[in-house]
Design brief:
Elements: H1 3-17, E1 31-36, H2 40-56, E2 58-64, H3 68-78, E3 81-83, H4 86-90, E4 97-100, H5 107-116, E5 120-124, H6 131-141, E6 148-151, H7 159-168, E7 175-181, H8 207-211, H9 221-225, H10 237-253, E8 260-266, E9 280-287, E10 290-297, E11 306-310, E12 313-318, E13 321-326, H11 328-333, E14 340-343, H12 350-363, H13 371-390, E15 394-397, E16 402-403
Parallel strand pairs: 1-2, 1-4, 2-3, 4-5, 5-6, 7-10
Antiparallel strand pairs: 7-11, 8-9, 8-15, 9-10, 11-12, 12-13, 13-14, 15-16
Helix pairs in contact: 1-5, 2-12, 5-6, 6-13, 7-10, 10-13
Length: 404
């Protein structure tokens, strides 16, 4: 099967079976979840959903993975029916809600096929691998009758919505800089997950289906098991880690598209790694009126303070919420204010993020990380990756919504 045949076939099958199966009429109606992709992150989702079955009146009705061992294990964990082809799951009347937990390069096609089938979507972050794909998802969702949640689970923490109120009411003064990080420390190599010795392309793994829209390559166990390290399938630190952080600041500061982006970094510690992506990656994004700074290394996990720097006050995010402290200049010359403390509700949790989408379906609750926020995150990620790979300072073309 060629890539074109695969994708054309997906569109045709979904188009012929599209119905509004996913419209849950009552608050007590059971929601039937289908899972596409059964790897490490998906297993965390499935274990969470299994725990939620009774309280949230849901069930996992189907699981799908191109590596049959994973699909079999997922079925044992959840009781869900095994689908060898995700398009067959989308054609099933027994699925209302689809979790897309595949490598990033497949997100776009699976999202649009799920929307076309009339089912609700929870997609792992980033929403898509590329900006043009995200624009197409936005266009489709604007007329869709289904709900979609993007898996930036930190949006189920109310700290960022609360911070936005202090940003808008002038408590912070003019915000000029925000800084945030996401770092880890690895010993011999980074993101070098164990590779399953049972993987046998042509026997229990459909390698061509796994590649899908990505460039055709011979089977490579490292690319299959450690796909975050390769540009064909991921934006690396940008799309796996930074998307969690930049989305928080977007919510807090009403950010959409950056004006300019520049990235730096390299493979400084793990120079011999097979990974294409850098182990140290830092980004500056100029949004209208302010700069956002993203810091990351896979070779040192010392935390950088998560700050919003305003002319009048500084807001620091903490594990329990945030604090706001007046700048000394204003404390001396203006009206002194006591430090403000926000105790968060919610948190960065899979169950809260899924429950938000369940409530959106049943009760029209507002989505915590909707497709527009997903789109803005994709733009920040792809611009940062492109800047690094081209070693260029990039400008955003606001009129055409593309990298200039």
């Amino acid at each position: 099967m060629t890539r074109r045949t695969l994708l054309t076939g997906a569109a045709a099958l979904v188009a012929t079976t599209a119905r509004s199966y996913a419209q849950i009429d009552g608050a007590n109606d059971r929601i039937r979840v289908g899972v596409i992709g059964c790897g490490i992150q998906s297993n965390a989702h499935m274990r969470t959903l299994v725990r939620m079955r009774e309280a949230d009146n849901i069930e996992i009705g189907g699981v799908c993975d191109v590596f049959s061992k994973r699909a079999d294990q997922a079925s044992q964990l959840t009781g869900g029916k095994i689908f060898r082809d995700y398009r067959e799951m989308l054609a099933s009347r027994d699925i209302d809600y689809v979790l897309v937990a595949t490598p990033e390069h497949w997100h776009y096609q699976m999202i649009v096929d799920t929307i076309d089938s009339g089912k609700h979507v929870y997609t792992e972050k980033p929403m898509t691998h590329h900006i043009e794909e995200a624009k197409k998802v936005v266009a489709k969702m604007k007329s869709a009758k289904v709900k979609m949640q993007v898996g930036v689970q930190g949006m189920s923490d109310d700290s960022y919505e609360a911070a936005n109120q202090y940003f808008k009411d002038g408590t912070l003064g003019k915000v000029v800089l925000a800084q945030i990080d996401y770092s880890r420390n690895h010993m011999d190599d980074f993101w070098a997950y164990p590779i399953d010795a049972d993987v046998k392309p042509g026997e229990n793994l459909d390698w061509n289906a796994w590649l899908g829209p990505a460039p055709k390559r011979p089977f490579d166990a490292d690319r299959f098991g450690r796909w975050r390290r390769y540009w064909d399938y991921s934006g690396g630190i940008a799309s796996d880690l930074f998307v969690h952080r930049i989305t928080r600041l977007m919510k807090a500061l009403d950010l959409k598209f950056p004006d300019y982006v520049v990235s730096t970094g390299g493979k400084f510690e793990f120079a011999q790694s097979k990974a294409e992506i850098p182990d140290t990656f830092n980004v500056l994004l100029d949004y209208p009126g302010m700069t956002v700074q993203l810091v990351s290394s896979m070779a040192n996990d010392t935390r950088v303070q998560h700050l919003i720097r305003g002319h009048k006050a500084t807001l620091e995010f903490t594990p329990s919420g945030f604090t706001i402290t007046q700048q000394p200049l204003y404390a001396r010359t203006g009206t002194p204010i006591e430090p403000i403390t926000h105790q968060k509700t919610g948190g960065e949790a899979l169950d809260l993020h899924h429950r938000n989408l369940f409530n959106a379906i049943r009760k029209n609750e507002a989505i915590k990380c909707d497709y527009m926020l997903g789109y803005y995150g994709v733009v920040a990620c792809e611009m940062s990756v492109t800047s690094y790979r081209k070693r260029r300072y990039l400008k955003w073309d606001a009129a055409r919504e593309r990298i200039a």
